[in-house]
Amino acid sequence: MKYSLLVVLLLTFNSCSLFSSLNSTTTIKPQDSFILGNNEHGTAKVVLQNISNKDIEVYQAPISGGKHSSQMIKPNETVTVRVEKNTALFISNASNDTVNVKLKVTGDLGLSMGYKN
To answer: Which terminus of the chain has fewer CB atoms gathered within 10 Å of its CB, N or C?
Structure first.
């Protein structure tokens, strides 16, 4: 009986995605931005590592308008960003070279993803 309860609890935790994350290495072209969460969603946490040799900028933009929490991320630097509800995270490459970032996203994983130049 104890083992059955344990199995049910484990399946429930897995189905609720309590321990799920999205892991990605994302390429961003020169003068382009990768946008994560430009849709209605809950909160998320993003651990971002700049694995390129150029600086990148990250900032949050609520889908209702505006921009805040801008920061420059240097090569090989890792930051943790808590993305607010209904807010997009922009990862911008202002350089003339392609850049790559490693992303680990937890929390609400129903985030839209796309590029904008």
So the answer is: N
Rounded CA-CA distance 84/57 in Å is: 18
The structure's pTM equals 0.82
CATH label of the domain that carries residue 49:
2.60.120.380
- pLDDT-derived band at 1, boundaries 50, 70, 90: low
The identity of residue 20, as a single letter, is S
Using CA atoms, how far residue 114 sits from 37, 38, 46, 55, 91, in Å, is: 9, 9, 16, 20, 11
Domain assignment present for residue 111? The answer is yes
> Could you give the number of structural domains in the chain?
1
Query: Tens digit of pLDDT for each residue in 11-61?
Result: 444 445 455 899 999 999 999 999 999 999 999 999 999 999 999 999 999
Asked whether residue 57 is domain-assigned, the answer is yes
SS3 8: helix
* Residue-level length of the chain: 117
